[in-house]
Amino acid sequence: MGLESSKPPSPASYGPIFSVRGRLYRILDVLGKGAQATVYRCEDQNAAQYAVKVFHFSRFPRSQRSGRARSFVKEARILKHMSKRSRHFVHLFDYEYKRKGKTGYMIMELGNGSLRQYLAGAPLKDTFRRMYWKQIVTILRDLKDANIVHADIKPENLILVNNVLKVTDLGLAFRINPPAQSVMRRKVLGTIDYMAPEVFSHKIGFKSDVWSAGIILYEMTYGRPPFMNIPGKQQKVAVIASKAPISFPSHRNRYLVDCIQRCLQHNDVLRPSAYKLEVHPYTRM
User: Fold this and answer.
1) Mean pLDDT across the stretch 213-229?
2) What does the alpha-carbon distance between residue 225 and residue 214 come to, in Å, rounded to a whole number?
3) How would you class 54 by CB atoms within 10 Å of its CB: exposed for 0-12, middle for 13-18, buried for 19 or more?
């Protein structure tokens, strides 16, 4: 769910006014919608513009609301923490959960579009692919340094702010206590095309994020994710979970193909860490 900027609306189309910790904002237009929240462009009283991620917990059954509110606070705290540590996480200016209205708000910086918009079903030019890949590897390293697994790395969750890739959505992110490298989780969550095989067996860790990054590099190289053409959700899950072979069309850059292949090894133990990806010949070139 991107946080990109768009053309300013006319005054007649301005939306409602809301407050976050006593500061007033006005909604201008919709930037994106997800399963959990809607992202709007908004402005404050000084006409400074932001992205606001709005969670309407009243849409969910009463039994789920307290859990979803806790998840909202957890996401905000992780994003606040990561944006202080790394320039590759969208800056969170403020957030608030309003218990009475059963609504949560996150005020964040605007972007210039998501990586998804730049892919557009075609391979990226070499210069842009390498530039974005180096930044994705830095994101993997920053997550590992903070002992955080993102669990949903995909082009829609990477926005560009002045040519800097930034992570926006940490709704599935969680911490791992070292020296553990992965954990077993009760629920299988994520975006199927970018999920590692072990995730469907309830195992997820730092190397699962490496797989997701490898899928993005594959897509930047070949124009689509490797499993995109498999029809039906269940069939696609079955193919990925069964560790079916992945096709790697020939490419003139052997280092690039090697990097993709290493990230997409079915055995997560054999995948390179973020630190090893930093020194891979393709990343260093």
Assistant:
1) 97
2) 10
3) middle
Distance CA 12, CA 88 (A): 35
Question: Domains in the chain, start-ordered, CATH in brackets?
Answer: 11-108 (3.30.200.20), 115-284 (1.10.510.10)
What is the rounded CA–CA span in Å between residue 273 and residue 212? 13
Residue with the two structure tokens 């860790």? 205
Distances (CA, A) of 167 to 79, 153, 202, 229, 283: 9, 8, 24, 27, 19
State how far the alpha carbon of 113 is from the alpha carbons of 74, 81, 119, in Å. 25, 23, 11
Distance CA(151)–CA(132), nearest Å, equals 19
What's the whole-model pTM score? 0.92
Most confidently predicted of 24-38, 40-54, 111-125: 40-54
Average pLDDT value over all residues in the chain:
93
CA distance 274 to 149: 12
Single-letter amino acid code for the residue at 20: V
Residues 6+ apart with CB under 8 A from 112: 4, 5, 159, 160, 161, 162
pLDDT in tens, 236-274: 999 999 999 999 999 999 999 999 999 999 999 999 999
